[in-house]
Every structure is written in C-alpha cells, then in structure tokens.
Amino acid sequence: MSSYDVAIIGSGPGGYVAAIRCAQLGMKTAIIEKYSTLGGTCLNVGCIPSKALLDSSHHYEEAIKHFAEHGIEIPGEVKVNLEKMISRKQAVVDQTTKGIQFLMDKNKIDVFEGVGSFKDATHINITKGKGKPKTIEAKNTIIATGSKPSSLPFIKIDKERIITSTEALKLKEIPKHMMVIGGGVIGLELGQVYKRLGSEVTVIEYMDRIIPTMDAALSKELMKVMKKQKVKFHLSHKVKSVERKGNEITVKADNKKGEEVVFTGDYCLVSVGRRPYTDGLNAEAAGVKIDERGMVEVNDHLQTTAPNIYAIGDVVRGAMLAHKAEEEGSLVAEQLAGQKPHIDYNLIPGVVYTWPEVAAVGKTEEELKEAGVSYKVGQFPMRALGRSRASMDIDGFVKILADSKTDEVLGVHMVGARVADLIAEGVTAMEFRASAEDIARMSHAHPTYAEAVKEAALAATEDRALHI
Ligand code: FAD
Ligand code: NAD
Fold first, then answer.
1. Which atom belonging to ligand 2 lies closest to the Cα atom of 165?
2. What residue's CA is closest to ligand 2, atom 19?
3. From residue 380, how far is each of 31, 400, 457 by CA, in Å?
C-alpha cells in the first residue's frame, strides 16, 4: 500500500494549490480526483470557461455595437458561430487543465483518478468506475471536494432547457428567451453572455437588488448599465414553480405585492447558489463532522473534527471563490510544515466579470452602518477619466470608504472597465493598512483606469478630487 504524508481529495484550485505547496515544503503528496481532468469546478465548468465565453461575446458585442464608432467598417454581417465559440472555450479549458497535470508531474505529486472515500482517518479508498478500490495511507488528509450547483426544491433541472451554469457553458443554440433565476454572480455573468449573443434575458431575483451581498451602490450601478443593455430585471420576486412543456418553460413567481407573475421562455438558468459537495466521501468513517448545511465543520485552522484531517475551499464556510480556496490550500500546507500562516478573510476580493466589471474588497457601506463605524466616502466616476473616454468605457465609479477619524481604508468598491484587475490595489492598500491619503499621494500612471482609485482616495481624504 502506498503511504503519503498528505493526501488531498479534490483537484480544484483549493486542492491542487494545497498539493503544490505541500510538495514544495517537502511532503510526500497524493491528489485524488474523480474526474479524468484536474482543476475542479473552476477550470472545467466555472471561472475559466465562463470568462472565455464572456470574452468571446464581448468581442462580438464590440464588433456589432462599437466598431463603427471607432471608424472600423466590416463589410457584410457579423455573425456568431456558437459551435466555434464553445469549442474555443473548450480548448482554453483543455490547455489549462493539462497545465495542472504538468504542475503535478513537476512537483512529483502522485495523481489518482477515482472517487476518494474514507476507510478510516488514515486510509482512503479510491474507486474508478466499477473497478476494485485501491487503498492508500495518509498521515494527513485535506478535503477539497468543492461544491455543486444548488436548486430550489420544486425545480427539476433537466440539463436541456432547465439548466445550471454547467450546461449554460455548452449550449448548442442561442436561446430566444433565457429566464435567469437568481441575480447573483453566475446569473449576471452568463445572462450577459447570452444577451450579447442575441437572447432576450430576464433576471428574476428574490431580494430587492442584484448581487445582494455587495455594496448597494454596485448593485444599483450594474443594474442601471445592464438595463441599458436591455436585460430585464424583476426584483423581490419569489419563484414558486418552473415547468417545461415541449420546448417552452414557464416560470411562476410572486411579486412583492403577492401577485402571481408568469414568465415564458425556451431556457431557464437556475443560479441560486451552490452547495458544498461531500457525496461519496464517507466522512463519518474518519470522524469528520458535516454540519446541517452540508459543510465540513472546521476550526480557525481549517482542521476538521478529526485532528489529522483538514478541509478547504467551497466545502467549508466562507465565500465560494477560487482565490479563497487557494489561500486556504496554502495555509493548511504551511501549517502542516510547522509554519504560522494567516488569512484575513476581510481582504478576499469579490469580482463579477460582467462588462463593466464589478469588484470589491473590505466592508460595504451597509456593513459599516450596521457596525456603527463612523466612515467617510470618496467616489469618482469613470466618465471623468481620459482613459475611459478613449476606450468609450465610461460607466461606473470607484468608491473608497475610510475611517472618519484615522483615514484608514475600510472598503474599496468599483464598477468599470478592468476593475477586476484594479481591485488588487485596494487589497494591497488594505493589507498594509493604508490610509486614503496614502493612496491619494501615490503616483498613478496617466492615462489609466487606476487614476480613478487615486481620485476617489483624494475625495475621501479631503474632498479634493482633481478632475471633477
Ligand atoms: P472545486 O473547484 O469544486 O473542486 C473540487 C474537486 O473535487 C472537483 O474536481 C470534484 O470532482 C472533486 N471531488 C469531489 N468529491 C470527490 C471525491 N470524493 N473524490 C475525488 N474527487 C472528488 N470563483 C472565482 O473566484 N472567480 C470566478 O470567476 C469564478 N467563476 C465561476 C463561474 C462559474 C460558472 C462557477 C460555477 C463557479 C465560479 N467560481 C469562481 C467559483 C469557483 O469555481 C469555486 O469557488 C472553486 O472552484 C472552489 O474550489 P475548490 O477547490 O474548493 O473546489
Ligand atoms: P450567488 O449566491 O452569487 O447568487 C444567487 C442569487 O440567487 C442571489 O442573488 C439570491 O438572492 C438569489 N436567489 C436565491 N434564491 C432565490 C429564489 N428562490 N428566487 C430568486 N432568486 C433567488 O450564487 P450563484 O450566482 O449561483 O453563484 C454560486 C457561487 O459561485 C457564488 O458563491 C459565487 O461566489 C461563485 N461564483 C463566483 C464568480 C466570480 O467570482 N466571478 C462567478 C460565478 C460563480
């Protein structure tokens, strides 16, 4: 029987990063993945394919809507070849997942294909298909089994027309009318993809705003822009049934007044969140407790109720984000090597890759109000930047929240072109506990979108933005 210092179950961004870091730190490491490709949700059916389709559909939208303004004329009609778009996406996925296999080989990590299932706290059975299980021994194990799409109890996901993100990433036709249940990250990103490709898109959201966990100003700005793009929104609507007859889907919901509203379309994307995934893990055999929401219970060190078993990523509490899973993978590996790493969960940024993009780190205004913190706000609109006018990306703003007494930056919230990349400046500033004045006094290259960060910091510091 093969024996390891660490075995990792699941090869998503949490698992594969944990494996690399364990190997870097000199541990004999194995990774177990039930699918034939590595990379988990993120690389196969999440972050990477969704961004590939967002990029392709963005190019198309630019070509049909903005090229002429730039003085670029395309003789004849610009058309979408959906099959090609989806196959390019798949090529990006294939290349990226092969890259993980390369990294496993480079770091001498043993990769096992099959479902990992605890025999006891130090032995894991690995079963591939209907084959006989193979057992490995591991001093320590990291559970990184991720998540799966969740649904509503009355919805039957048929994977053809009533679909989750997984199917929406490989449709064979452009929907005529895609109804999206849930105006969170997935609904808005994939809704925007199909809107750009020509579908009518209707978002039905239970809360009174889209992306409800982000700062309310971001929800408002993104909804304003997406409404201009002709996406329809129905907020404060409680979906109560989804039914398919032939190719037609009917969604019934109750609005705020309790009146029934009926929507019909040819596709319904259910994007109401994801659930932690522990099916087949046989966690109880190892003494690992799963809580009532299906999450693996962990302490501050990400240690489960079995002392030699840890859990990271989507399967434990906190934001379901790839970079959060990665940080946790490194943290557990470093702890096992005797180090004392730390994660500041307040500084895990959140991004929505619509166009304009949305990005945030730290506290929202709503959270500061609720905590009774006295704060000041500096805000700067993208449209006042030369860079934004040059590219015609004038929607959005940067908003900085700073402590009114100490000037320490408490939150950075943005909507605009490339803010997914810009948020790193907010994270860096907050990691070093910068004041708004610290950011305001840094030179920001001109012309860049980043100048909006400096200007918002100037506005927060002394209400003295320069270009407005
Ligand atoms: P996962 O990536 O889910 O990986 C878990 C792996 O474990 C899977 O490969 C699974 O097959 C395997 N597994 C499960 N059980 C077993 C078992 N018993 N034995 C063996 N293997 C097992 N996050 C971002 O930060 N940015 C984004 O832009 C982004 N976009 C997304 C877009 C979509 C459409 C979706 C669905 C998600 C997106 N996410 C994004 C979320 C991100 O994908 C997850 O947060 C991330 O993948 C979690 O990583 P993980 O390692 O915890 O688990
Ligand atoms: P989400 O939690 O972002 O959004 C779900 C939305 O559905 C919420 O707005 C919620 O209020 C709404 N909702 C819940 N029940 C409803 C109901 N009965 N009727 C109508 N609306 C309802 O979840 P998601 O969009 O499915 O994404 C799942 C996870 O994947 C998220 O946690 C997210 O972090 C991750 N993800 C991240 C990215 C990114 O980082 N860019 C992209 C995609 C997914």
1. 26
2. 206
3. 47, 9, 9
